Amino acid sequence: MKAIIHVSLKKAILDPQGKAIASALKTMGFDEVEDARQGKVIEIMLNGKGDEARLRDMCDRLLANPVIEDYKIELVA
What we know:
With about 80 residues, this protein is of the alpha+beta class.
């Protein structure tokens, strides 16, 4: 089983990389871009059945900073 973890900054946290991405896209002629937020995706291969509680523990302890980041766990068979 595979777990895909999507980590992103909380909405209240400034995202200078996202701002730079949005600015660069506008400069390249993509005028429809209003804003961008940058994050990361982590794929973890699990042996056996995935336990969402253990994955949340992994995220809280290492993969994300729960003070400034949100995360979403997706389990893929």
